[in-house]
Amino acid sequence: MKKLLFILFWIISTVVFGQSESRVQLEQEITAADRMAFANPDSALITLKKLEPKLDDDRLKSKFLLAKGSAYSVKHLSSDALRLGLAALNNSEKSKDSLMMINSLGFIGNQYYILKLNKKAINYLNRAETLIDYLNDNSLQQVTANIYFVKALIYKDNLDPEFAIRYFDKAINQYNKSKDKSSLLNINITKMQKGYCLIEIGKSKEAEIVFSDVIRESERNKIAEVYSYARIGLAASLEGQKDFIKANHILLETEKQIGKSQNIEMLTEIYDALSQNYLVQNNEERYFFYNQKLEKNLLKNEEIEKKSFSDLLDKNVESQNLELKNNQRLFYFFVILIFLFTFGSLFYIKKRINQLKSVKA
């Protein structure tokens, strides 16, 4: 749920002394494209394509790959995003750049979470955490927060929202230690996820306060990327309080604001909420209207996700074949065990019968 709220800003701000002015400019442009990807991934990809020929060192290449991966992730092309994340990891490992290795590991873990492969996600996130603990570098506060954030999402899905809130709070605490705009954006994204957890445990009024705070922050700091998402969350908190009229008003306004961008995921959230709200209000006409829009978008999402999983499977045929061979070996091992157990049991029974016969004789 709320998939688009956890797919960006794994690239951390690192201070490197002695950088040339052109390199600093390139790094700023890559970061700007990464931020742009959240709202307009196609424009971000065009910008990144123009920057690619100018890249002249490994760290910039790794940052470029992760920024490009973020854009593909927003477009629901998770297999491509994962491929770019793995390329960034490989690049940073070759150059022995520990900071970018951590960013890459976190990004990969995030992509696996999006693909609902939580065991793989935890594996990469734990590897990133191990490196963070080893380096003990203050510049890693943001990526540490990112890891807490994705782990909170996994706990939210697999345990309970109250436990997840603790990790969202830990992430917010880490983000607050940094003052750049990326941190401000991530703080507000994290607050929104916390808001959805509050709704799930029946604290919709508290959630309303959280989402209203995010809306004010996004307006004050001109963080356009989260404004519409916060309004959808605010509507959800009002639905939890049975104020469907006010919730629908907010959702309809938000639909108008984002309609031209054709953000399928966000529109799907809106159509889902509107159809459910009109159903509760017994407005049959509006319910069917938005339910049809919802079904249309769900089909688009399903096609995109199928393509992502298909691509991911095609690119992992070798590892899957190895896993299949291992499973086959395990299967044959169990077959042999069952055969031996059965043969042993029959031998024992036959022996016991013969003993009984000899006693009777």
Short structural summary:
The chain is an all-alpha fold and 361 residues long.
Protein model, in words:
The protein has 361 residues and is mostly helical. 81% of the residues lie in helices and 0% in strands. The protein is built from 15 helices and no strands. α1 runs parallel beside α3 and α12 runs antiparallel to α13. The longest helix is centred in the last third of the chain and has 44 residues. The radius of gyration is 26 Å and the shape is globular. It starts with 20 loop residues before the first helix and ends with a helix. 40% of the residues are buried. The N terminus is likely disordered.
Write the layout of secondary structure elements.
Elements: H1 21-39, H2 41-51, H3 58-74, H4 78-94, H5 98-114, H6 118-135, H7 141-158, H8 161-175, H9 181-200, H10 204-220, H11 224-240, H12 244-258, H13 264-280, H14 284-314, H15 317-360
Helix pairs in contact: 1-2, 1-3, 2-3, 3-4, 3-5, 4-5, 5-6, 5-7, 6-7, 7-8, 7-9, 8-9, 9-10, 9-11, 10-11, 11-12, 11-13, 12-13, 13-14
Cα shape: globular
Topology pattern, helix = H, strand = E:
HHHHHHHHHHHHHHH
Main sheet characteristics:
none
- Total number of beta strands: 0
For this structure, the quaternary state is single chain
Key features of this structure:
361 residues; disordered N terminus
